[in-house]
């Protein structure tokens, strides 16, 4: 099992865009999530090399379980003027970005690392949530990956 936290505001994987160049149609990734995916790759690489142990994390070749806890920033109107959270402030983040697109960006980034799993198609069990960050949680994502 490997667990790590990625600091920063989670960014969803954008949809591919279509374009026409001359007489040829094509699609491209707009790249708006690249900085976030680089942060995921950096944190994942650091966690996989386990500086506290003599050996690095062994790449998983079989089925994988993935747990993702996304902590998103709260809007200012959730707090009182003294900074205290209002009792009506929600726990769950129910607006954009979509949870499935957040998960896709993380899975793609972990696949690009090439040291945790071979391909994100190995994920057979997945649990994810998106909630507002509070005093107990920083903005980012906590990732847990386990070999099944």
Summarize the structure.
This protein has two helices and six strands, in the order βββαβαββ. The protein is α+β, with helices and mostly antiparallel strands and 148 residues long. It has one domain (2-147): 2-Layer Sandwich (60s Ribosomal Protein L30, Chain: A), CATH 3.30.1330.
Secondary-structure topology with pairs:
Elements: E1 2-7, E2 17-21, E3 24-28, H1 34-48, E4 64-72, H2 99-113, E5 123-132, E6 140-147
Parallel strand pairs: 4-5
Antiparallel strand pairs: 1-6, 2-3, 4-6
Helix pairs in contact: 1-2
Considering the protein shown, what is the CATH homologous superfamily?
A: Holliday junction resolvase RusA
Radius of gyration: 18 Å
Q: How many domains make up the coordinates?
A: 1
Quaternary structure of the protein: single chain
- Low-confidence parts: none
What is the strand tally?
A: 6
CATH class: Alpha Beta
SS content category: alpha+beta
Helical content stands at 10-25%
Summarize the structure in words.
- By secondary structure, this protein is of the alpha+beta class.
- It has a single domain, classed as Holliday junction resolvase RusA (60s Ribosomal Protein L30, Chain: A).
- Helices cover 20% and strands 29% of the residues.
- The protein is built from two helices and six strands.
- A four-stranded mixed beta sheet has the order 1-6-4-5, covered by helices on one side. The protein has a two-stranded antiparallel sheet with strand order 2-3.
- A hairpin with a 2-residue loop joins strand 2 and strand 3.
- The longest helix is centred in the N-terminal third of the chain and has 15 residues, at 34-48.
- The chain is globular and about 50 Å long.
- The mean pLDDT is 89.
